[in-house]
Design a protein that fits this description.
5-stranded parallel beta sheet; arsenate reductase (glutaredoxin) activity; two-stranded antiparallel ribbon; binds zinc ion; 35% helix; Oxidized Rhodanese, domain 1; hydrolase; 7 strands; alpha/beta
């Protein structure tokens, strides 16, 4: 069972769009993209996308404000969410974050909330760069 049940999406929220792995690699060239890994335990043994942040889905609702602060502190304006397959947890957390942004009174400067198609498994299967460090916030150089 997935630990998060789908949340009702506010009509005010920006739509969540999808990005392919190849498109994400291109987006990553810019420094304004944060990759948000919402897998749970899998991150610790499967590796992760180089440079990704870890906000596990089981505690995601409580950590949405932290994620926004982290993104702002790093000057990000695009967040790309993923889980293992990006079928349930990734899109659910992306919508949760988009709803939070819609309800926030301040303009956080986040322009895009996206989901990585096929998730981490698709990313790894297509031979894209993965990392096995133990950091919650991966520095991406490993
Ligand atoms: Zn890493």
């Amino acid at each position: 069972m997935d630990p998060i049940s789908p949340v009702k999406t506010s009509t005010m929220a920006k739509p969540v769009s999808y990005v392919t792995g190849s498109e994400l690699l291109t987006l990553k060239e810019g420094s304004n993209v944060a990759i948000v890994d919402v897998r749970d335990d899998e991150r610790s043994y499967d590796g992760h996308i180089a440079g990704s942040l870890h906000f596990a889905s089981d505690t995601f609702n409580d950590r949405v404000p932290d994620l926004l602060q982290t993104a702002k502190a790093q000057g990000k304006d695009t967040l790309v969410f993923h889980c293992a397959l990006s079928q349930v947890r990734g899109p659910t957390c992306a919508r949760r974050f988009a709803d939070y942004l819609a309800e926030a009174k301040e303009d956080a400067g986040i322009k895009n909330v996206m989901v990585l198609e096929r998730g981490y498994n698709g990313w790894e299967a297509s031979g894209k760069p993965v990392c096995h460090c133990s950091g919650t916030n991966c520095k991406g150089g490993c």
